[in-house]
């Protein structure tokens, strides 16, 4: 066994015979708090990114395909032809797609009214998203014709118009002429995304097609889900290039425009990118605090162990090995703090993830609780980085211990 490591393990962290040095306690506490703050910062930012991303995707899907009008007399309606289905089915990364239609409408009560867009509720992804954010009622089964006159509205719209589940409301649809339907509110959702909640209600695709005088296989766009959102830009380019090639070869008869959730929700993703900068600043500050405290504690320990240094130097211990002893000793302090910080913060993060103990103002943060993501890979990488940085930073103060000569220590004994 390396005797430097052995002596570091056996050497106590006491000062003047006490159980533990105050400097050691401060160093352990500083490392523990720094690690805890770092873990919390990473987990919360990853949680925010996940929640905001899921909301943007929930309203927009991974990729949206739009038909481009060929001229002023042409329509922007997309027709889901068998050819278009075959093209999408041949793409391995496409997991689901559904036709969507929307139409402007006005919800009117006896005392108030609200302009909205009614969107079709057909794809599995949007149904799952609204189910997760449903506050009252249930998602209608639009496969049953009896539910064709039922809609979902947002909590914002319900509060503004004084509506609740089961109420019926006159809805005016604006197409070539104005049409009126008395629709029943089947459920109320609340995603806390005011930008979307404030303008969208959801209904049956056949009802929207009927009111818009369009065919059963037509809609305003196609919502496409992929197997990996992180590659959505790459997939968008593939779909766009495939459609251009199909148009050039005469397989499809019109041009298509491709958009994805990153462009449709660009403002939200730019806001999230600012959080990355904040996290980097926090990590750097906490690292500096932990290192400064450890170095201070290490210097105090070195001064307290001057007699020990003199003895082992007089016994022939090389300077390099003396330095190693105190680096290992300081690393022992750092690892204790690292372990304490991990146990403390991971327990708190787990509790927050399960019970949502800490709440937020949804008007400011688009979510009503502090989101966290337990990311083992990021946590392990963070801990490994902390250990490496601390080890490298402790090499310099260890030189001070190695410079203490046996003659100086013996002179004061």
Q: How would you describe this structure to a colleague?
A:
This protein is an alpha+beta fold and 413 residues long. It contains 16 helices and 13 strands. The strands form three sheets. Strands 4, 5, 6, 7, 8, 9 and 10 form a seven-stranded mixed beta sheet that branches. It has a four-stranded antiparallel beta sheet with strand order 3-12-1-13. Strands 2-11 form a two-stranded antiparallel ribbon. α2 packs antiparallel against α10 (266-304), α2 (22-60) crosses α12 (319-355) and α2 runs antiparallel to α14 (376-393). The longest helix has 39 residues, at 22-60. The protein starts with a helix and ends with a helix.
Jot down its keywords:
single chain, 413 residues, seven-stranded mixed β-sheet, 16 helices, 54% helix
SSE inventory with pairings:
Layout: H1 3-10, H2 22-60, E1 63-67, E2 78-79, H3 82-89, E3 94-100, E4 102-108, E5 113-120, H4 124-132, E6 134-137, E7 150-154, H5 155-161, E8 168-174, E9 178-189, H6 194-197, E10 200-203, H7 205-211, E11 218-219, E12 221-226, H8 232-248, E13 256-260, H9 261-264, H10 266-304, H11 306-314, H12 319-355, H13 362-365, H14 376-393, H15 395-402, H16 406-411
Parallel strand pairs: 5-10, 7-9
Antiparallel strand pairs: 1-12, 1-13, 2-11, 3-12, 4-5, 4-8, 6-9, 8-9
H/E topology pattern = HHEEHEEEHEEHEEHEHEEHEHHHHHHHH
Helical content band: 40-55%
Radius of gyration from the alpha-carbon trace, in angstroms: 32 Å
| Amino-to-carboxy terminus distance | 31 Å
Number of strands: 13
Which regions contain 5 or more consecutive residues with pLDDT less than 50?
none
Strand content: 15-25%
Shape: elongated
Report the major sheet.
Answer: 7 strands, mixed
Mean pLDDT: 87
Structural class: alpha+beta
Tally the helices: what do you get? 16
């Amino acid at each position: 066994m390396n005797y430097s490591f052995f002596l570091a393990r056996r050497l106590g962290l006491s000062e003047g015979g006490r159980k533990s040095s105050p400097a050691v306690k401060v160093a352990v506490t500083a490392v523990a708090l720094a690690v805890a703050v770092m873990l919390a910062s990473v987990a919360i930012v990853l949680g925010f990114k996940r929640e905001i991303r899921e909301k943007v995707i929930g309203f927009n899907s991974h990729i949206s395909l739009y038909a481009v009008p060929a001229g002023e007399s042409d329509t922007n309606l997309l027709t889901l032809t068998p050819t278009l289905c075959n093209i999408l089915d041949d793409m391995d990364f496409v997991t689901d797609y559904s036709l969507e239609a929307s139409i402007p409408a006005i919800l009117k009560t006896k005392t108030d009214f609200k302009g909205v867009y009614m969107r079709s509720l057909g794809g599995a992804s949007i149904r799952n998203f609204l189910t997760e954010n449903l506050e009252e009622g249930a998602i209608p089964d639009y496969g049953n014709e009896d539910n064709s006159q039922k809609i979902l509205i947002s909590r914002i719209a319900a509060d503004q118009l004084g509506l609740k589940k089961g109420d019926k409301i006159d809805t005016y649809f604006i197409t070539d002429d104005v049409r009126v339907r008395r629709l029943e509110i089947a459920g109320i959702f609340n995603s806390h995304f005011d930008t979307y909640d404030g303008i969208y209600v959801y209904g049956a695709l056949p009802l929207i097609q009927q009111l818009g005088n369009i065919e059963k296989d037509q809609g305003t766009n196609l919502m496409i889900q992929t197997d990996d959102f992180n590659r959505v830009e790459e997939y968008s380019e593939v779909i766009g290039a495939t459609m251009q090639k199909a148009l050039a070869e005469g397989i499809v008869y019109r041009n298509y425009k491709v958009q994805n959730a990153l462009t449709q929700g660009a403002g939200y993703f730019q806001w999230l990118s600012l959080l990355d900068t904040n996290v980097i600043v926090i990590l750097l500050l906490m690292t500096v605090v932990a290192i400064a405290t450890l170095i201070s504690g290490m210097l105090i320990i070195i001064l307290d162990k001057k007699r020990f240094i003199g003895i082992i130097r007089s016994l022939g211990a090389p300077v390099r090995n003396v330095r190693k002893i105190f680096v290992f000793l300081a690393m022992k302090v750092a690892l204790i703090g690292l372990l304490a910080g991990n146990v403390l913060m991971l327990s708190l993060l787990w509790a927050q993830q399960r019970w949502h103990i800490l709440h937020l103002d949804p008007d400011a943060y688009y979510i009503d609780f502090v989101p966290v993501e337990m990311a083992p890979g990021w946590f392990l990488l963070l801990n490994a980085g902390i250990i490496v940085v601390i080890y490298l930073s402790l090499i310099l103060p260890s030189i001070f211990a190695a410079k203490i000569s046996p003659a100086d220590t013996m002179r004061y004994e």
